[in-house]
Design goal:
mainly alpha
Length: 93
């Protein structure tokens, strides 16, 4: 019974795909209607694509470069924390 359900749903999906690609509504296929209504998507996709390309270039072209920028004050605070933790670990031994 499960095989028949699977084949039935597969046939429905194929039929829907064929109709979307070749059927006509007002002289245009349903896919043409969707493409026309989603015309504004390109305006959003272009900046997103540029950001992704910039991120890819940053990782591929210079993978060893640090990705975060820390101020001297931040570095000193981190060094102090690390030294305090190291001192506590040495005292526990």
């Amino acid at each position: 019974m499960g095989v028949l359900k699977f084949l039935g749903w597969t046939a429905c999906a194929v039929a829907l795909g064929v109709w979307l690609a070749s059927g006509e509504i007002d002289g245009r296929t349903p896919l043409d209607h969707v493409k026309g209504s989603l015309g504004g998507i390109g305006a959003v996709a272009s900046p997103v694509r540029e950001v992704l390309e910039d991120a890819h270039d940053a990782v591929v072209k210079n993978p060893a470069a640090p990705r975060e920028r820390h101020s001297e004050k931040d570095r000193k605070a981190l060094d102090d924390l690390i030294s305090q933790r190291a001192g506590k670990q040495n005292n526990q031994r």
